Amino acid sequence: MTCRLFFQAMIQVTGPRELLISSGADDSKSVVVLVRDSGAGLDSKSLERFFEPFYTTKPQGMGMGLAICRSIIEVHDGRLWATTNEDRGTTFHFTLPIVEGTRA
């Protein structure tokens, strides 16, 4: 679901499109995933409300996708948030704890 949301957002971008996905581990024994796009980005008002149920910036959107993603990640003791890139676009960050005895 999350990847579909990012690809839908990228459809609206004119010109070159870039989607960068990176992952690693942090000091708190969590996996960190960053999804950076080169889209138009979000204004500060949208950034604050982006994960609220039923908040959408699209005429045909329901505003549920990111709210559902955040709920699923939080149920698994993770976090999901977004930041605005300095140049253009948005980076979505999420963390999930590494479970002892598993491989990342």
Structure at a glance:
This protein has 104 residues and is of the alpha+beta class.
Question: Care to describe what's here?
Answer:
The chain is α+β, with helices and mostly antiparallel strands. The chain has a single domain, classed as Histidine kinase-like ATPase, C-terminal domain (Heat Shock Protein 90), CATH 3.30.565. It contains three helices and four strands; from the N terminus they run αββααββ. It has a four-stranded antiparallel β-sheet with strand order 1-2-4-3.
| Low confidence ranges | none
Main sheet: strand order: 1-2-4-3
The percent range for strand residues is 25-35%
Number of alpha- plus pi-helical segments = 3
Number of domains: 1
CATH topology: Heat Shock Protein 90
Whole-Å distance between the termini? 21 Å
- Shape field: globular
